[in-house]
Specification:
Elements lengths: L2 E4 L9 E7 L6 E2 L4 E6 L4 E5 L4 E6 L6 E3 L3 E6 L6 H7 L3 H9 L19 E4 L9 E7 L6 E2 L4 E6 L4 E5 L4 E6 L6 E3 L3 E6 L6 H8 L46 H10 L17 H6 L26 H16 L2 E9 L1 H10 L9 H15 L5 E4 L2 E4 L5 E3 L1 E3 L2 E3 L2 E2 L7 H16 L13 E5 L18 E15 L2 E15 L5 H16 L7
Parallel strand pairs: 20-24, 24-25
Antiparallel strand pairs: 1-8, 2-4, 2-7, 3-6, 4-5, 6-8, 9-16, 10-12, 10-15, 11-14, 12-13, 14-16, 17-26, 18-19, 20-23, 21-22, 25-26
Amino acid sequence: MAEIINMPRLSDTMEEGTVAKWFKKVGDAVSEGDILAEIETDKATMEFESFNEGELLHIGIQEGGTAPVDTLLAIIGEKGEDITSLISGGVASEDSEKAAVSEPKEEEPAVSVSSEIPEGVEIITMPRLSDTMEEGTVAKWNKKVGDTVSEGDILAEIETDKATMEFESFYQGTLLHIGLNEGESAPVDSVLAIIGKKGTDISAVLTKQASPSADTQKAEPTSKVPSPKVEVLPEVKATPQVAAVNKPSNGRIVASPLAKKLASEKGIDLSRVQGSGDHGRIVKKDIDNYQPQVGGGVQVFTPSGTESVTEIANSQMRKTIAKRLSASKFSAPHYYLGVEFDMDNAIAFRTQYNSIPDTKISFNDIVVKAVALALKQHPQVNAKWEDHQITQHHHVHVGVAVAVEDGLVVPVVKFTNEQSLPQIGAAVKDYAIRARDKKLKPEEMDGSTFTISNLGMFGIQEFTSIINQPNGAILSVGAIVQKPVVKEGTIMVGNVMKLTLACDHRVVDGATGAQFLQTLRAFVENPLTMVV
């Protein structure tokens, strides 16, 4: 009996998939476990194997075609079996099937698979390399037009909203066309390159891209953004005010009506104003900039400098930070709980711990470990808001904010509560180094259940953070400072650290957040309890 194979959901955020390559063709025998196709998801290109055996009777989505999850992908059954009813049940007709699969949505600047594409030509589109990626920037091309490309070759380095990643080819042939130059950006699914047989005429394909049909004309194929650069605007020179009579040969002073009105209101003698308009005509800016001579022969100050600015194009990371933090701030009702911890015991503990050979931990490691243990006792804080429910996590994945040149990334220490202090320290240090080199993988920045932002190392004593959604809370950690404190009725010098917990009030109530901070205080002020 024939079996319908639908587009699988290969990741938790996948909504649609693209068939990158078929390994079987209609009429081929298929065994259980055979690789049917490569499916490009929102995170990666993955092999999709068959759980059925028989003959491949029908292919519903051609190579390069995109369709939502659960759309008819293929049909496997016995040789010669009638599958007309199955095909008509999945799509009304072959034509409508192709339209549903390969015709791009109006708002998506994708190139459809059509008969206008010569045989053997493959259109490579901007891949979705992270779950939040909406557009990418070509940081570097490793191939140029005319080069031979083999399957698995690194075509280019693509800058996403989270990292710069290598993009490999799933096809082989000659690189016939490059759609984006280095430094240019375009939305996901825009044309990135074209690969085919050497000498293939792709002028029709390029013409179709340059002149999209009426149905797709609303969406531009690419959105070109200038690469980051420093640009000095044209010099704006100060206009010296000259104490000279502005009298043309005919004795008439030429000024615009507005300039005359302003001069009258300010009591300015137009004959003493130097006009900057055509033929010495006095205009509004001449009145606005006019300064009379100071008495006693002292000239007024005339600046000799120029106005200039630096323009830096927004990177994909900066755009995503702006989008996600704005969404968090304006959608999640934030409130803040501030505390001050006594750090005397933590200082002594760290000193003693670091006396062990080849061992070194930081105060940040102590805080991360304490937070993880406290979250295990308070799953209400280790939670996220969803439209239909609040999801409490019983695993602890702490995200640690790391500042990089282009902004901020949040690598995740998985199962933080199970790791030792040195293990946490090594993981955070490794993430920080690779984050600054843009070598973090997308999966290393996914899945946090809580986030910590520490600016204490920069001398910041107290601050508040915006919640890193979908987390329900974020902890801001300040510097350790010395100040007078009262202990057992005596004023003495103590070491204190201020922390601020930002909570999403939809998830974490005030009393719940306060109880979490009490547990956290017990661990941080008595760190020995974390290791015994």
